[in-house]
UniProtKB/TrEMBL annotation:
Keyword field contains Flavoprotein: no
Gene Ontology terms: cellular component: plasma membrane
Keywords: Membrane, Transmembrane, Transmembrane helix
Ranges of residues in domain CSC1/OSCA1-like 7TM region: 13-196
Protein name per UniProt: CSC1/OSCA1-like 7TM region domain-containing protein
Stretches that traverse the bilayer: 9-31, 108-129
GO MF, one annotated term: calcium-activated cation channel activity
Classification via Pfam families: RSN1_7TM (PF02714)
Length: 226
């Protein structure tokens, strides 16, 4: 067992790592979301230019809907990569959680907090800050007023995010595509004599599915209430 001093050091490092994760993870997410526009897609992928032109010809409402959907999918992708990576379980263990129940409880709390900060900071507030950056530099003391006037402009993205999360991701969770894919890999590789590797992957995925889905469900429910 580690000494008391070592446990305190690990707990402090885990807390610092959580703070840095919450703080800096919003930067690449907001940057990628800023690139997920029809104009940038048409420039980066020329073969999509006819599709982009057709969407733009349909009117600004269609453009806002498509761009909001792309931004919501980007946020969902980054969120799932983080939630399913197991990093919160590692941070909870280094933070002082000893039993499996404590690890699940702490990791679920970190996941719910992460989802809240990802939605508010990385999508709503960050997008509004980019839109009003010049005004913030000129009038830094007017930041609350500028955010209050800019945040409602992100309502369409927020609704797209909620609808996509509720309709698609919860359905994928119920179908358990990842578990089925790992089980299929295990059965296909039995003839190679190495099914234990895929069994361990399947077991680790099943261990962490409860806090992940609990955090996702509670996060979606909280967003619906707000």
């Amino acid at each position: 067992l580690a000494s008391r001093f070592s446990r305190k050091v690990y707990a402090a490092l885990a807390t610092f790592a959580v703070a840095m994760l919450f703080l800096f993870w919003t930067i690449p997410v907001a940057f990628v979301q800023g690139l997920a526009t029809l104009k940038n897609l048409g420039e980066a992928l020329p073969f999509l230019k006819p599709v982009v032109d057709n969407i733009e010809a349909a009117g600004p409402s269609r453009v806002h809907f498509v761009e909001g959907t792309l931004s919501s999918w980007t946020l969902i992708l980054f969120r799932n990569l983080t939630l399913n990576s197991g990093i919160f379980q590692v941070l909870a263990r280094y933070g002082g959680a000893l039993t499996h129940t404590q690890i699940q409880a702490r990791s679920a709390g970190l996941m719910m907090l992460f989802q809240l900060l990802m939605i508010l900071l990385a999508s709503l507030i960050a997008s509004s800050l980019f839109d009003t950056l010049k005004q913030i530099i000129d009038q830094p003391l007017q930041l609350p007023v500028l955010l209050a006037s800019a945040l409602p402009a992100q309502s369409e993205f927020f609704l797209n995010y909620l609808n996509t999360t509720t309709v698609l991701l919860l359905l994928f969770d119920l179908l358990r595509f990842l578990s089925l894919a790992l089980l299929l890999c295990e059965k296909c590789c039995c003839c190679l004599g190495c099914p234990e590797f895929f069994s361990k992957m399947l077991d680790s995925q099943n261990v962490f599915k409860l806090p992940i889905r609990t955090a996702r469900l509670l996060g979606t429910t909280t967003d619906r209430v707000r």
